[in-house]
């Protein structure tokens, strides 16, 4: 399923993008003055293949899983919080429930590797590959075969979303300890030291951050993940929700849906996804800058921008939900504003086309 999905990822529609850019350049505002929002609208034209996309259906796919490395004391919270938070998501009481409502997005919940058996709940997909990963400080998180199975789950979830009309898919995750494997993945591709990339996660002290960095160093030394082989990195120092999200990204890109990433965990998944399929990178949209230092590093490695500086460090897809609102804002600009001609406003002296050529406007 992975190979076919990667093969199905097409280029953006450059004609739709050019037509969209032309309309935006003629809207009643100084040329380029809504910069980031304009770029989002043009990107959505390229992804959807429509010069004036509007009212896109939004889904947030939240994958939950546990991590053997949590036994090393790398999180400020106990492992039981993972299933408890999944129940909280199902019952509508978590931050992401509020954010999904705010964004007008449907929340899709997936148990892809929670350590305990969860009861059937409305809205919860039970797709457990295994009850949590093994401890990456001691050996590989999972087998390569399990990594592939988890990716397939994500591809299927993205296909379901696309078949329900989703044009924008936000990524969310839950899994106590998951900033540790995410940092290990990002460190595998970075020239920066893992100590510089390790952050406080749910709220570690400086001493606990140093311990977490040691565990990450051990995971990398014990497993020796091969960056030339993203599946190797994923299987050795990843997690089931991270693997699932890799699949969601690839499946969404193959289905011509935009993918809005969130913080460090989803950006680790995005980094692996673009290593597996560079063409998927054009379907990615950044949202906020997380407090986690590895998040910025991942964005840099992917070559992706983010927009919101809110010092958030929650995950669940909360930043992605805000990113979806920025896409909406860009599409409202595109669809609701009038052009100079439609509104009878005098155009800039040299005309927008001439201004666009000038070096100042990018
Ligand atoms: C109550 C609670 C709700 C959360 N929602 C997301 N996370 C976030 O924190 C975890 C990662 O941080 P670390 O690696 O330090 O464990 C993940 O579950 C992530 O989604 C939460 C964490 C807690 C405690
Ligand atoms: O960057 C994130 O999304 C994040 C940071 C800390 C804990 N959980 C998630």
From TrEMBL:
Pathway annotation: Nucleoside biosynthesis; alpha-ribazole biosynthesis; alpha-ribazole from 5,6-dimethylbenzimidazole: step 1/2
Alphabetized InterPro entries for the sequence: Nict_dMeBzImd_PRibTrfase, Nict_dMeBzImd_PRibTrfase_bact, Nict_dMeBzImd_PRibTrfase_N, Nict_dMeBzImd_PRibTrfase_sf
Keyword Transferase: yes
Catalytic reaction list: 5,6-dimethylbenzimidazole + nicotinate beta-D-ribonucleotide = alpha-ribazole 5'-phosphate + nicotinate + H(+)
EC class name: transferase
Active site as annotated: 316 (proton acceptor)
One function term, GO molecular function aspect: nicotinate-nucleotide-dimethylbenzimidazole phosphoribosyltransferase activity
Entry EC no(s): 2.4.2.21
PANTHER family reported in the protein's UniProt record: NICOTINATE-NUCLEOTIDE--DIMETHYLBENZIMIDAZOLE PHOSPHORIBOSYLTRANSFERASE (PTHR43463)
Described function: Catalyzes the synthesis of alpha-ribazole-5'-phosphate from nicotinate mononucleotide (NAMN) and 5,6-dimethylbenzimidazole (DMB).
Entries under HAMAP family matching the protein: CobT
Family: Belongs to the CobT family.
Protein name: Nicotinate-nucleotide--dimethylbenzimidazole phosphoribosyltransferase
Originating species: Anaeroselena agilis
């Amino acid at each position: 399923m992975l190979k076919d999905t990667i093969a199905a990822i097409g280029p953006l529609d450059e004609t739709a993008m050019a037509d969209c850019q032309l309309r935006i350049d003629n809207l009643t505002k100084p040329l380029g003055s809504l910069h980031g929002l304009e770029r989002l609208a043009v990107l959505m034209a390229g992804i959807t293949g429509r010069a004036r996309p509007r009212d896109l259906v939004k889904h947030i796919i939240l994958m939950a899983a546990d991590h053997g490395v949590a036994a090393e004391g790398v999180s400020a919270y106990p492992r039981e919080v993972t299933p408890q938070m999944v129940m909280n998501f199902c019952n509508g009481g978590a931050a992401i429930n509020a954010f999904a409502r705010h964004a007008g997005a449907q929340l899709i919940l997936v148990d892809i590797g929670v350590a305990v058996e969860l009861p059937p709940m409305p809205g919860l997909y039970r797709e457990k590959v295994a009850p949590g990963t093994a401890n990456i400080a001691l050996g590989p998180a999972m087998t390569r075969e399990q990594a592939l199975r988890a990716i397939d789950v994500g591809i299927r979830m993205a296909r379901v979303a696309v078949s329900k009309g989703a044009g924008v898919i936000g990524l969310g995750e839950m899994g106590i300890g998951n900033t540790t494997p995410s940092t290990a993945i990002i460190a595998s591709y970075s020239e920066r030291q893992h100590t510089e990339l390790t952050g406080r996660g749910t709220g570690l002290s400086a001493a606990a951050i140093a311990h977490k960095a040691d565990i990450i160093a051990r995971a990398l030394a014990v497993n020796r993940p091969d960056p030339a082989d993203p599946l190797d990195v994923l299987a050795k120092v990843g997690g089931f929700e991270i693997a699932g999200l890799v699949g969601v990204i690839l499946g969404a890109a193959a289905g011509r849906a935009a993918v809005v990433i969130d913080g460090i965990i989803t950006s680790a998944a995005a980094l692996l996804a673009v290593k597996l399929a560079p063409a998927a990178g054009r379907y990615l949209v950044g949202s906020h800058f997380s407090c986690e230092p590895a998040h910025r590093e991942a964005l840099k490695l992917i070559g992706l921008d983010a927009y919101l500086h809110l010092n958030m460090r929650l995950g669940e897809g909360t930043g992605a939900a805000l990113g979806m609102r920025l896409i909406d804002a860009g599409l409202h600009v595109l669809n609701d504003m009038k052009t100079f001609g439609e509104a009878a406003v005098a155009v800039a002296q040299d005309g927008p086309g001439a201004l666009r050529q000038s070096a100042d406007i990018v």
